[in-house]
Specification:
mainly alpha, 70% helix, 2 domains, MetI-like fold, 0% strand, globular, 14 helices
Length: 295
């Protein structure tokens, strides 16, 4: 590094945190890079394993980087789908329909329920807010039996709706939207009401744009959760199962001789949520449009 460039580097690190020395900023940057490499190691290994031939996957000691690059694992996975009674595109359509409708419904219902909880005062408001926090403590495994009984009573077992309808009642989405909507200045809502806007119109034209980072974040969380759902406990017809269920069957039903197909399946399951996150991350990192505003 030239002497002329050194002062610029020092100024860059000094701007990060005024309370730390130049050496402290360097150490912190190196530590963050080290942690980033540690967290990236499994991802790098996953991507490389998907393109390794079988003899490389079984190599001892294992190697991280692929040497003999091949697409045979993906072709073999495609052959498995071609030999099955249900084509690959049917599984993909099922997943897109379930995830898309379930995510959209969760955002809409969570937003409409969170708006009065965040901006209105009514009898039982405090109890409902506490009930939401308590409901966050229950894992999906605890409510699985109850969801099954309710879906069976409604006659929705072995349909898409057996996965979609329970996703509408996500407590995390309601909690997230309520917290963000409570930060929206009431003056914005009052101004919209003075202009003659209805409550429904105020919600979608004023409040929802102000909490865009919240519902984009909810979209990502909901997509990741529903994308991983196999639905094998509520959907039994093979032509109605989502893609993760089919990929899980491939991964569990093959021998060590077809470990490459398992790696290809793992990469596909990993990539799609990551691509969605990369597309949406700029919106997640945005600050609220009302930040800095005061009543």
């Amino acid at each position: 590094m030239s002497r002329a460039a050194l002062p610029k580097v020092k100024r860059f690190f000094k701007k990060r945190r005024g309370g730390r020395s130049f050496a402290g900023n360097i150490i912190l940057a190196l530590a963050m890079i080290g942690f980033a490499l540690i967290f990236l190691a499994p991802v790098i290994l996953l991507v490389n394993n998907a393109f390794k031939p079988l003899h490389e996957l079984l190599r001892i000691p294992p190697t991280i980087w692929v040497r003999d690059f091949t697409l045979e694992n993906f072709f073999a996975m495609g052959n498995i789908f071609n030999a099955s009674l249900v084509p690959f595109w049917r599984y993909l359509f099922n997943s897109v329909f379930i995830v898309g409708l379930g995510t959209l419904g969760q955002i809409l219902l969570a937003s409409m329920a969170a708006y009065p909880l965040a901006k209105f005062e009514f009898f039982g408001e405090g109890f409902l807010n506490k009930l939401i926090i308590i409901a966050l403590m229950f894992s999906p495994a605890v409510t699985a039996v109850h969801n099954f009984l309710i879906m069976a009573h409604l006659g929705l077992i072995d349909t898409y709706w057996a996965i979609i309808v329970p996703s509408f009642a996500s407590t995390l989405g309601l909690f997230l939207m309520r917290n963000f909507m409570s930060q929206v200045p009431s003056s914005l809502i009052e101004a919209a009401q003075i202009d003659g806007s209805s409550e429904f119109r105020t919600l979608w034209r004023v409040v929802m744009p102000a909490v865009k980072p919240a519902w984009i974040t909810l979209f990502i969380l909901s997509f990741q959760s529903m994308w991983q759902a196999t639905g094998t406990n509520v959907i039994f017809t093979e032509s109605l199962k989502p893609l993760p269920a089919a990929l899980a069957q491939i991964a569990s039903g093959i021998t060590i001789a077809r470990m490459g197909e398992v790696m290809a399946v793992s990469l596909i399951m990993f990539l799609i949520p990551v691509v969605i996150f990369i597309i949406m991350q700029s919106n997640v990192l945005e600050t609220m449009t009302t930040s800095g505003m005061k009543e």
